[in-house]
Each structure stands twice: as C-alpha cells, then as structure tokens.
Task: structure prediction
Amino acid sequence: MPKNTPGAHPRHALAPLLSSPVRLSIVAALAASGKAEFGFVRDLVEITDSALSKQVTTLEEAGLVSVTKGAVGRRPRTWLSLTDEGTRTYRRHLSALRAIAEGDTLDQTPT
Result:
C-alpha cells in the first residue's frame, strides 16, 4: 500500500492480542523454542501457573497456540507450541514493530 493512504501505517499490521507484554513474551518464547513445557515457559516469562494458564487459553482460543497434554513417567506434562497461524501472526507483528521503530511510517518522497 502506498504511504499516506488509509491503512498504510504499519501499526495496522500489529496483532492486538500481542499488545500484552505477557502474551508477546509467551509467543516469543515459543517461537524461539518450537515446543516448550508449560513450566519452562512459566519460569522464562516469570509468571504464575494461573497467569500463564489464562494467557495460554486466550492464545489458544485465537488459534495462535497449541496445547498438548501427556506424561513423562507418571508425571503429567503440558507442552505449548505456536500454530502456523501463531507463527505468521508473530512474524507480522514483529515486522510491524520494526517498521514503526525504523521510521518507515514517514513519507520520504520529495515535495
């Protein structure tokens, strides 16, 4: 889209769900690890079990995160991973943030 047209500002590509620092941190951790155990993400993001559970539910309902339950030995485990849509959304969000930070919002054509 050409600059200075409605909807051309990179902020329009930001994912509203990722405006939460906690949700962005969760998605970033999953993007870097591929698949991660619930406790690992909890500790990495420095939040409680209940806070992570709530945020993961929100991301899962939006189709961005996949939750897989299983066991290691006799201990139940929950693994988290980004869906394909989650990966696309995260990349688009990062691209928009970079464009905003780098000043790609300014029309630089001479007048």
Observations:
- The longest strand covers residues 65-72.
